[in-house]
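Section 4.2 – Deliverable D4.2 (structural model, holo form)

The reporting period included a commitment to supply a predicted holo structure for the target in complex with magnesium ion. Inputs used:
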Amino acid sequence: MIQLFKICKSYGTNKALDDINIRMRKGEFVFITGPSGAGKTTLLRIIFGTARPTSGQILIDGINLSRISRLKLDLLRRKIGFVFQDFKLINSKTIFQNIALALEVVGERPSMIRKKTHQALKAVGLAGKEKAFPLELSGGEQQRVAIARAIINEPMLLIADEPTGNLDPDITKDIMVLFRSVNLKGTTLVIATHNRELLKNTGQRIIVLEKGRVIEERIG
Ligand SMILES: Nc1ncnc2c1ncn2[C@@H]1O[C@H](COP(=O)(O)OP(=O)(O)OP(=O)(O)O)[C@@H](O)[C@H]1O
Ligand SMILES: [Mg+2]
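Output (C-alpha cells):
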C-alpha cells in the first residue's frame, strides 16, 4: 500500500528526514512517534503528496508519486483522509459545510451528504453542531470535526497527525475506538502521536523517529 524508499527531505541544511525506508501493508494500523521535530509531520505530508522528498521514491498503491500528474495526484488524494495537526478547517463555513465539502468534491447526492455528515458528527460525539462555526468550538471539538471530515469518505488510507492532541482522556479513548472501527472496515491507518498513553498495549506497529531517522520499530 505504502512504500517509502530511501526518502530524504531537507529544508536548507536541516535534514527533516534522512534515509527512510518503510513499507505498510493494506489494512495495517501504524503509529509514528518520536520527539517534537523528529520529522513525523514531514513524513505524513510526503505520504499525502503535499511535500516532495528531496530524494527517494514513494509508492502509494503501486503509484509513484513523483511520476504522476497533478490531476491524478488530486484524484488519489480523494481516497485519502488527512487529519491535520492544526485542523485546517474553513472558519467562514459552518461545521456542516466544512464536512460536506469532502463529499461534494466526489459528487455525492445532497440527501446522502446530509445523512453521512450527521453520522460522522455523531461518531465523533458532536451531534447537533452542524450550524456552528469552527471558532465557536473548543480546540478539542475542532479536532473532532477534522476527524469527522477525514473519515467521511471511507478513505482507503487515513493519515492523522496528532489527532488526539487537544482531547481529554475519555474522548481520546472514544476516538481510538472510532479509528479501530474505521481500520476494521479496511482503511489503512497511519497516526503520528507523542501520546504515550495512546501507544500502550495497542498490539499495533509503532515506528519511532528521531532526528529524521527510524531508530526503532516495535509492537505496542
Ligand atoms: N516547511 C518547513 N520549512 C522549514 N523547515 C521545516 C518545515 N517543515 C518542517 N521543518 C523542519 O523539519 C523538522 C521536522 O519537522 P516536523 O514538523 O516533521 O516534526 P514533527 O515530528 O512533526 O514535530 P512535532 O511533534 O512538533 O509536530 C523540524 O526541524 C522542522 O523545523
Ligand atoms: Mg508534527
